[in-house]
Design brief:
This protein has one helix at residues 117-126; strands spanning 5-14, 17-26, 47-50, 57-60, 84-87, 95-98. With 152 residues, it is mainly beta. Keywords: 2Fe-2S, Iron, Iron-sulfur, Membrane, Metal-binding, Transmembrane, Transmembrane helix.
Length: 152
Amino acid sequence: MLTNTKVYVTNFVLVGKIVAMVIVESLFENMTDQSTLKPHVPTYGPCTIRDLKPGEVKLWCTCGLSKNQPWCDGSHKGTSFRPLKWTVPEHAQTVYLLCACKYTKTSPICDATHVGLIGTIQKQIENCSSKQGHSNIGDKKLCQQCGFVPDW
C-alpha cells in the first residue's frame, strides 16, 4: 500500500473514444515536496553562462548553498533539497541567464523574480515559525522554512 499518494487522471481522445490515463505518483515519507522548501538566496541576480553544449545535462543548484553557482556542488547534502537536472536545449544559444536567487518560476532560467525579492525574504525570515532555532541551526546548514543561513 502506498502512503502519501497523488493520483492524476488525464483524458485523451483516441479514434473517437475518450481514454483515461491514470498516473500515480507516490511520495515516500523520506522525501519532501520541493515546492514547500525555502532556499537560501546566494545572489539577487542571474548568472551569465556561456558556451554550453546543446544536449549537455547539468545539475542546477536549488538550495542556494553551492559555492559553484548556478551549478550543484553537493552542498545540499543533509537537507531535503535536490538539484534540478537540466538538459541544455538543442537550439544554439551563446548566453544563458540562469537564476541565482532560486525563486524563479521558470527553473533554471532567470525570470527576474529577484527584482522584488529582498523584502519578501526578510519578512520570510522574520516571520519564520522556526526562528528561535536559527541561533543553533547546527549541521542542518539552513532553515528550510525560510532560507536563513547562519554566517553566510
